[in-house]
TrEMBL record:
The keyword Transmembrane helix does not apply. It comes from Parasedimentitalea marina. It is found in: Cell envelope. One of its GO terms (cellular component) is cell envelope. Its main location: other. It comes from the Bacteria. Keywords: Signal. This is LacI family transcriptional regulator. PANTHER family: D-ALLOSE-BINDING PERIPLASMIC PROTEIN-RELATED. Belongs to the bacterial solute-binding protein 2 family. GO terms for molecular function: carbohydrate binding. Residues 26-285 form the Periplasmic binding protein domain. It holds the Pfam family Peripla_BP_4.
Length: 313
């Protein structure tokens, strides 16, 4: 687990900001609006707002996860218009830290979801809600080893280098493979969370590594592009593939055997619990410093079970 997350976990609760409870806008700002994963966060936030009558919310994000400056601007704009609180999924742990500090200095409570901030942000936000991405990466690695054994090549298709979720998810996947097998890691390769980029990268990797035994697609657009490349190359079901996240395309790939499985986060819970945490802070209540929103490994065997259906979107 990286130090940015450790910093969040140093206390069971974080001291509350000296804010006064008042009705107003809660700004939910995610990495991109062009993803079913983040739209499911939107649904969760909507559910939280509908359960009360004191606050409204807005949902926004840049066109892509790599448009980090645009996300910084969205946070700055929210501060400038005096929102009551912010729920933020930071695309970059360093670039978003100054904006979160400014929100703190302006008396605006911030709850971080999905990916952590740098150590410099310690004490400037009220809670961190996320999948334990390191545990999730290890879970996927264990499933890969169970299926392919301990020898051969496994490619890693990642998304944006240095993002908090990517550091834990991909880093711990690679570490777990190294600790429990002799599997050779090819990559990681970074799609910038662009499906078409992931498709082209995977196509090239499959062509260059005819002896590949496994492949991991570490977020929604990357895993979708990876799955499509496997189908186009005629290697669906012959190379063991595991994805991450749970939109309709990935569910179809699990059902038809293109993917052995996909690890799915509680994205709805991130939105719902994130907004609820901000409301609690505004009402003077304590919130836990870290809330694990969980992960489920969805396979053909459990995809129709409630445990999977509750997280798929």
């Amino acid at each position: 687990m990286k130090t940015s997350l450790k910093a969040v976990l140093t206390a069971t609760t974080i001291a509350m900001l000296p804010v006064t409870a008042m009705a107003g806008e809660i700004a939910v700002i995610v990495k991109t609006t062009n993803s079913n994963f983040w739209q499911n966060v939107n649904k969760g936030a909507s559910a939280a707002i509908e359960a009360q009558s004191d606050h409204t919310f807005t949902f926004n994000g840049p066109a892509s996860e790599s448009a980090i400056a645009d996300q910084v601007n969205l946070v700055e704009n929210a501060i400038n218009r005096g929102v009551s609180g912010i729920v933020l999924a930071p695309s970059d742990p360093d670039a978003l830290t100054p904006a979160v500090k400014r929100a703190y200095e302006s008396g605006i409570p911030v709850v971080i979801i999905d990916s952590g901030l740098s150590d410099g942000a310690k004490g400037t936000f009220q809670a961190f809600l996320s999948t334990d991405n390191c545990a999730a990466g290890k879970l996927v690695a264990d499933q890969m080893i169970e299926k392919v054994g301990t020898e051969g090549k496994v490619a890693v298709m990642s998304y944006v280098a240095g993002v908090g979720s990517e550091i834990g998810r991909v880093g711990c996947f690679v570490e777990q493979l190294g600790a429990h097998s002799n599997l050779e890691v090819v990559g990681p390769f970074y799609s910038q969370s662009q499906m078409a980029t992931a498709l082209n990268q995977t196509t090239d990797i499959l062509a260059a590594n005819g002896d590949l035994v496994g492949i991991f697609g570490a977020n929604e657009p990357t895993a979708v592009g990876m799955g499509r490349a496997l189908v186009q190359a005629g290697k669906a079901g012959t190379v063991t593939a595991i994805g991450f996240d749970g939109n309709g395309d990935l569910q179809d790939f699990v059902r038809d055997g293109t993917l052995l499985g996909t690890a799915v986060q509680g994205s709805f819970q991130m939105g719902e619990l994130g907004v609820n945490a901000v409301i609690d802070v505004l009402n003077g209540k304590s919130v836990e410093s870290f809330i694990d929103t969980g992960v489920v490994l969805v396979t053909k065997g459990n995809i129709d079970d409630p445990v999977a259906q509750n997280v798929l979107y």
